[in-house]
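Researcher: Structure for this, please.
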Amino acid sequence: MSREDLFPIGAGATLEELDADPHPLLARLRASEPVSWLPVLNGWLVTRRDLALQAMRDPNAFTVDDPRFSTGQVVGQSMLTLDGDEHARHRDPFARAFRLDAVRNRFTELVEAETERLIDAIEPVGRGELRRSLAGPLAAAMVVHALGLGDLEAEAVLGWYDAIVAATTGVAEGKPVSTGGKDAFAALSASIEPVLDREPSSSLLAAAASQASGLSRQRVVSNAAVIMFGGIETTEGMIANAILHLLAHPDQLSLVEADRGLLPNAVEESLRLEPAAAVIDRYATRGIQFGGGAIAKGDLVTISLAGANRDPAVFPDPNRFDVRRENAGRHVAFAHGPHVCIGMHLARLEAHTAVGRVLDRLPNLRLDPAHSAAPRGLVFRKPPALHVIWG
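Model: Predicted structure, token format:
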């Protein structure tokens, strides 16, 4: 029998379904075909949480080190596309700056000040689009600061980021790397290069480019692009989705407004319900029987973080947004294993601050009924725009 015959639910999946609202499909796959062959992806899709964790924890069987890896095609080899000792060599020069204590000490005041500045600009108007007036600029400003690229304007960085996201999504859909993605990475590289020649103590990038790190300049630039790209994408989507979920569920918003101590768990629940990164890719290093699928060496194995996060075996009533969910933090929105997101602590700090201050400063905040705010995206899921009204 063909793979299509063995996995009929996966065989019927479409890109539009995965982009618009994948959750009904993911539920059917998780129940009947937890590791399924999807011709539309030309690969396997893993939707059950235990299997997703197993795949993310086992780089010997499921690797990122493959020339087909979408982000690698756009920005080059980096910590995101390497495993084992090489992965550690690329990640370690950057990791210390993103540890929890370092993030709290270095970024708390900066995040608070930038959040206030951005809200100051929109507060008198009474309506606005929060993805690109708050979530995106805040994320861009913090990642630029983290890397020591203080001369870059957030608007330019967001433009490059949009092009790189579009190029990466296009590769995931089977398209070649777009000219826009190539041009954006070239512009980003040209802006980063001068920073690499400064004193190692002047910035994270200069330190990573020093002889002590052992990384070539090209690899430092690629890793910087990954951190910038991931730092903006994760945080922008995280903030926009959390605000959307709260405004779309007035009963849950009332609970958070009555007890602001629920806000961190509300953010975790939002991450569970709609992770900003919906899928991550791996490639099989050998033939393996896995979750009912006969995976061949070299096959693409896409792990659905969105599917794992709604596994009813772990999260009862998984489609419900519940700010009091006791195990909301067991989501895998930041991935797991060796490639767990390096910037998750900074992303959480930004989300907690931004969502909290929006609720504090924009009274009677509500979704604008004239605009749709439904999340979309095959790889990265968030509202294309988040129009709101207040006052």
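Researcher: Any notable elements?
Model: The two ends are 61 Å apart (CA to CA). The chain has a mean pLDDT of 94.
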